[in-house]
Design a protein that fits this description.
The complex is a heterotetramer, with two copies of chain A (305 residues) and two copies of chain B (265 residues). The two termini of chain A are 22 Å apart. Chain A has one domain: Aldolase class I (TIM Barrel, Alpha-Beta Barrel), CATH 3.20.20.70. In chain A, the strands form four sheets. Chain A has an eight-stranded parallel beta sheet. Chain A has 305 residues and is α/β, with parallel strands linked by helices. Chain A is built from ten helices and 16 strands. Chain B has 265 residues and is of the alpha/beta class. In chain B, strands 4-3-7-1-2-6-5 form a seven-stranded antiparallel beta sheet. In chain B, helix 5 packs parallel to helix 6. The longest helix of chain B has 14 residues. Classes of the chains: A alpha/beta (305), B alpha/beta (265). At the A-C interface, strand 11, strand 13, helix 6 and helix 7 of A face strand 11, strand 13, helix 6 and helix 7 of C. The complex binds flavin-adenine dinucleotide (2 copies), flavin mononucleotide (FMN) (2 copies) and FE2/S2 (inorganic) cluster (2 copies). The site of one FE2/S2 (inorganic) cluster has 13 residues of chain B, from loops.
């Protein structure tokens, strides 16, 4: 028997494969395909204090082995999410992590205060890296001082496991990671999308309604993997790796690069069974190669084992 | 809910310039499918380019044979690759997906307006509508007579139809919305269905609303997940309070009522 | 007749399609496929003051729609290049641009002094962005002050057209671009490769001998395009766009995003005729859409024409 | 120099577990090709995954029929896709590329040592060597008898050959380098050719150098351009002064002399 269990900042997961925020709604769409307890943890769509209508279409542009998205954090606001979406996830048998985003520090703090007492919420993922909103969002994630201050303030407002999701659009991801670790992050998620664009040469205009969007999918895997490799050697808190994971082999690359857990985003759109398929594949790899505990593989590529 | 299955391509036929019909063997989908719904196809089994699935309206269904068909136009990489796939091959299809057309029983005279490829979802609807007692009329438009779609199928359905071509090579000369204006002047319809490019739909909706005519349109937006999980396919609609409200074409659509749709240019 | 000619910092090119450094050797390999005068300009492999043996293999790892390379600036050194490679390019009928790299400012200056008097050299491209060398390289390109100082020193050592090639591995590419423009760059090349990696899960080790490598090819096109869009609106000097250009359509996206010229790297490996094919395709697009001068398209996506 | 052409696949045959032979119609390449050279194949016409071409040694040439063949093993995405291509299809091939084996006229007794897929370039060489007056002997190795390659072709070539299998199911039990040691003890060879995985080549080179035996090996490195423009395929070799000197496998190789090759582990 292989042991796929992992503990991320006190969140006990049956396996290391989570959903990536924004790519899994609030779980119900994929619950039609498989039981959610097959996943390690469920991270919901980015939530803001007030409802957001999102960006004007088109919001998606496909690129070679990737997609640009500019959803713009469309969501019904935190109160609605707690009232209408979370109840359905109770008893789903998987830890629920709420991804939060804001324009101002104040907004983050308000949300954290609202979420802190809720038993149905196992952890918080703080998005300081969304490239698709005008204010805040990515700006928090590209300067280590701003990122550190935000995390410090949030930390003081909650005792829930606190995951901080970083932007990859920076010169030195290690610096930002160190700053948020120092200010109390329990885990670090890497990476959010890379800022990109596509142009429609017939209309002579950007394809996306929002002009720019965030690149995800297999195209970014080499870049995300490099950042996981760098950060996991730099910090002590666990790293959740993501960016282009489509298969168990991809997930294993991230784990060997140092990720304690992984998240799957874009792959869900292509194969709705991605998450359970990846869980199964990791187990099979371990059996074939005589590993019984996932931690034997975590960081193996730099631990040199 | 929706299924994910490998389905065999039974037939694959060229129907016009860059236009193909593909028939799948999929008893499950053929049983469940309703007019206006779509399937989400994985174009290539291997490799990540193209990456996403591709949505196509259900064009036809043959429950007895367990057959589901699409009609598609080659526009980019995905459809280009599709056009080269041989019958006998398997393709992974997901569906049926999306909100179907309402088969309004009260309406006595129904008009369907198709622009170009917009004919695809309407054809399946026509086949269902003609089973009822309503008067069903169809108008379809294309740039040229050669590009007019599905005339053989329309003929077979027995429905009354007229065509518009921009080059005047067939039927009414001009856009299908020109023909629509004429029709609305002459006839007295109580329900309208339409599908086509946005500029055409905008015109259709404005003509219908002037007359207070009820109806539904099928919209298109680029999709990622196809099941409502990513919010990628948002189309602007009018919310309860007249506010802008982005709705998911894949799940809350692709069919929307005429009152809901909203065009911001 | 369409006019494809462009002028980059005084270098007169018959068309806007150049080779990207390191992807075209010194021209002779592709001269076996077509006449080099069909290209807008030839940029040679990165050259250093002393010969470099390069990194240990494997140096290439394929990723979805991209490749990681870690060649490590293998080159025979500037003296050899001038003596053995440049003579063959005289009379090739295309401007020759020498790409230079170094660990120290001093090395750059020495090379520039050697190249400045050479008539057969039409321009210099200063690589301050190579991710595959231990010292210098990318470090010069990720800090705008360091970049600015280096360009200032080089500028004072030569009157040749000076193109500065930036690293995309930065938080804000506009800042670096502004700094090198201010210090005298005549043109800016965007982008060099993105730092990435791949892991061999069976060996539990990075695939590349050098551990990390630079990502190029279609995978990075959306990111490169976004940077060209940003920088071309920020600076007055012409921008040379590159990163994943495979077809004339891709090149036109970069031109509409603001690039005055484009460079083709990875595509040569897939289709050795890439450059002439792209030149032809741009011409055809212009004919079909009734443009007679390429400048009508430059930046069209943000000029809003 | 090298050519770039669409060539039709004449035949495509499974030769063993995951091993296929593909025959192309390419009169130009068949005329020019020399043993040890390779062709650079574009696996898919459309889409960028896989992106790069794939190099394969020329396994066989039939000048009369204008035919060029490769023997390949499915190891990843590119070869997996190749294995599904049907005869009749066109593939874009570039070649012949690389430095061929030297057909040493002076050598009287020649030994060829193949490990696994390393048999591919040696087969074409054997066919050329047997035309001369030299004594030509071949030893090939594989893990199991089932995985031994090209025995039918070896039989047809009339050359003297022996085999080694690690599981002992055929011939000598053990690695091909074990069989080589035995052969070198018994026979008296004056030229050796070899191709196979790096660890095997390292052993071959060390055995040969102990005896002062001359010869050539064919190396593999991951390639990007295939024509000498990118420096991606560097293999460590011994420079003139015994220094480390990276050489391009695609252009300065894939064939290197025994003295040149260098193994740094
Ligand atoms: C609900 C729905 C039903 C559809 N039904 C049909 C149908 O029955 N027959 C048919 O031929 N097509 C239909 N389409 C459109 C079809 O999905 C696209 O033409 C197809 O995905 C293009 O794929 P591609 O790889 O060939 O083109 P790409 O290379 O992806 O794109 C080529 C061009 O088409 C545009 N495009 C891409 N995807 C879409 C999309 N989803 N909607 C609109 N434009 C797009 C791109 O912006 C680009 O300009 C439908 C779309 C939706 C959303
Ligand atoms: C000069 C030369 C001649 C060759 N001749 C033959 C031949 O005759 N028959 C044959 O079956 N194979 C031959 N190869 C190897 C063949 O090119 C690779 O197996 C093939 O490119 C793998 O493609 P893929 O997409 O299936 O695998 P990928 O998915 O690209 O890779 C799968 C695995 O194979 C390894 N690999 C990929 N490319 C190469 C390469 N070029 N060399 C070594 N390992 C590689 C990867 O590191 C990975 O572990 C030759 C290689 C070279 C350089
Ligand atoms: C359509 C879409 C919406 C996303 N929305 C969010 C979001 O709301 N909050 C967030 O932190 N990340 C969001 N992301 C980023 C993903 O969670 C993930 O970090 C990124 O897509 C990389 O992983 P992938 O390549 O597996 O998709 C979104 C990504 C996509 C594609
Ligand atoms: C194999 C290889 C070698 C390269 N060598 C250099 C170099 O020596 N100097 C340099 O400035 N850029 C070098 N580059 C970067 C390219 O010039 C180019 O900036 C990058 O590859 C992006 O373009 P592409 O996607 O078209 O390849 C190299 C790229 C590759 C793939
Ligand atoms: S395509 Fe994902 S929500 Fe509609
Ligand atoms: S593969 Fe490019 S130099 Fe050999």
């Amino acid at each position: 028997m292989v042991d796929l269990r992992v503990d991320i900042a006190g969140i006990n997961m049956n396996n290391p494969v989570m959903s990536a925020s924004g790519c899994f709604g609030y779980g119900k769409e994929y619950a039609a395909f498989y039981k959610l307890k097959e996943m390690g943890a469920l991270v919901v769509k980015g939530t803001t204090l007030e409802p957001r209508e999102g960006n004007s279409p088109p919001r998606i542009a496909e690129t070679p082995a990737g997609i640009l998205n500019a959803v713009g954090l469309q969501n019904p606001g935190i109160d609605y999410v707690i009232r209408e979406e979370l109840p359905a996830l109770q008893g789903a048998g998987t830890p629920v992590i709420i991804n939060i985003a804001g324009n101002l520090e104040e907004e983050y703090i308000k949300m954290v205060r609202i979420l802190d007492p809720l038993e149905e919420v196992q952890g918080l993922e703080v998005n300081i890296s969304c490239p698709n909103v005008k204010l805040g969002g990515m700006a928090f994630g590209t300067d280590q001082k701003v990122a550190g201050n935000l995390v410090k303030a949030i930390r003081s407002a909650t005792s829930k496991p606190l995951i901080v999701k970083l932007s990859p659009n920076v010169t030195d991801i290690k610096e930002v990671a160190r700053a948020v670790e120092e200010e109390g992050a329990d885990a670090i998620s890497l990476v959010n999308t890379f800022l990109g664009m596509a142009i429609d040469i017939h209309r002579k205009k950007p394809v996306l309604g929002n002009l720019m969007g965030g690149l995800s999918g297999p195209a970014i895997k080499p870049l995300a993997l490099r950042m996981v490799w760098q950060v996991s050697q730099e910090v002590k808190v666990p790293v959740i790796g993501m960016g282009g994971i489509m298969t168990a082999e991809d997930a294993l690359e991230f784990i060997m690069a140092g990720a304690r857990a992984v998240a799957v985003g874009t792959a869900n759109f292509v194969n709705p069974y991605s998450i359970p398929d990846i869980v199964k594949g990791i187990g099979e790899f371990m059996v074939e190669n005589n590993y019984d505990n996932l931690l034997q593989l975590t960081g193996a590529a730099w631990r040199g084992v | 809910m929706s299924m994910l299955k490998k389905a065999q391509i039974i037939e694959h036929e060229k129907k016009g310039p860059g236009i193909y019909r593909m028939d799948f063997f999929s008893p499950e989908i053929s049983q469940k499918a309703l007019p206006g719904q779509f399937i989400h196809l994985k174009v290539r089994e291997e490799g990540y380019h193209p990456l996403l699935r591709r949505p196509f309206s259900i064009y036809d269904v043959d429950k007895d044979r367990g057959q589901v068909s699409i009609l598609y136009r080659v526009v980019g990489l995905g459809t280009h690759i599709m056009a080269q796939i041989l019958p006998g091959a398997l393709m992974e299809i997901m569906g049926p997906l999306g909100r179907p057309f309402t088969l309004s029983k009260e309406a006595e005279r129904v008009l369907l307006v198709a622009g170009g490829m917009g004919f695809a979802p309407l054809h399946f609807l026509i086949k269902e509508l003609v089973k009822g007692n309503q008067v069903v009329e169809v108008i379809t438009g294309a740039r040229t007579g050669e590009e007019l779609m599905g005339e053989d199928d329309l003929g077979r359905s027995g429905v009354k139809y007229s065509v518009a071509t921009q080059d005047g090579s067939r039927g009414f000369q001009g856009r299908v919305t020109g023909l629509l204006e004429k029709k609305l002047d002459e006839g007295n319809y109580d329900f309208l269905y339409s599908c086509g490019p946005y500029p055409m739909l905008e015109k259709v909706v404005s003509l219908a609303s002037t007359l207070g005519l009820k109806g539904e349109v099928s919209l298109e937006e680029v999709m990622a997940c196809g099941v409502g999980a990513c919010l990628g396919c948002a189309a602007p609609t009018r919310g309860d309070k007249g506010n802008l409200d982005y709705k998911k074409v894949c799940q809350e659509g692709p069919v929307f009522s005429l009152e809901e749709v909203f065009f911001d240019g």
